């Protein structure tokens, strides 16, 4: 059997994978059309979110009540759009229900973020989250993750920024078919300062920036597709290979590990023979000289892990070189439709090999401001602005046309949402 492995030049190579297969629970999902949105990849790509469900407009930045984000995600089968931009100051942890699409790209102005408390996807299924920021901070008595999930399935996070977790920044436990792509996972707060636990069967981490997390970038157990991520300025541990009695299977392709001022550890750590890994094209720049001039990592860097000579048969994914991925991640990761000062600072830290692990967000300027804006007129509240509907030959007075489909398989409202962030 062969699988397609696409490089950035568009050349298609065939890489044999016969004789090395993932556990049944982590196999590729059946080929379905369409994927969550154009560009969705990996184990979570088949999520449909709220496709066909109610369109809910977030009309205020309140913690709760009608028109709030909390109310929007409290019930299943919804597509959540934003008429407001800015910070949503949470008064307690927030849970996201199943069969939900969260379209952060619709927020006007500088976009939208939650702050102060954890956002949980535990036990949720079939969720799409795009262009959102989740920032925890030093809320008293809240030693929690910024984003967490346990027992979740079929979720894709795209262009998300998660930071300032007190426990982990972004943890995925006992879950399956999860993708986190083009996201920034940063500045887990000391003394814990962790990127995240990934202890699940079928997780894709692709084109993410892990920055200024002391350890767990991530700590991986189970089945992991780890492709084209940039890990910067960890402390003791970057990518932790299992450290577990259980069997783990991983493909690690085209990742770049860049040491920073706080870094003391190697790019891979705490492996044992139960961690089965196929690794290719990964680079480590450990000299802290301000230049991206790393070396390719070798089997010796992986320690006692079991080195596979063929990749596991995970979902198809486009793979860049580590050098090209570095540029792509710094240009595109996070809620980058309107990148805010926090994410801009993080990207500058990577490029300049500057910055440090932190204990308090105030040390780096705090939450700052997210300016609001004016949403386009949507008279029938179907998630599609009137002007866009006119241009598409739809009826701006008929909310039912949101769920009409074309040959692509996407509904009309999905075509609008996808078009906001497609090149």
3D structure, described in words:
By secondary structure, the protein is mainly beta. The chain has one domain: Single-stranded right-handed beta-helix, Pectin lyase-like (Pectate Lyase C-like, 3 Solenoid). It is built from 5 helices and 28 strands. The strands form 3 sheets. It has a 16-stranded parallel beta sheet that branches. The two termini are 34 Å apart.
Question: What brief labels describe this structure?
Answer:
globular; disordered N terminus; 423 residues; Pectate Lyase C-like; mainly beta; 16-stranded parallel β-sheet
- Reported by name, the CATH topology is Pectate Lyase C-like
Q: Which CATH first-tier class would you pick?
A: Mainly Beta
Alpha carbon gyration radius: 21 Å
CATH architecture: 3 Solenoid
- Mean pLDDT level: 92
The largest β sheet comes out as: 16 strands, parallel
Low-pLDDT residue spans: 1-32
**Helix-and-strand structural type:** mainly beta
The count of domains is: 1
- How much beta, percentage-wise? 25-35%
- What is the helix fraction of residues, given as a range? under 10%
- End-to-end Cα distance, whole Å, is 34 Å
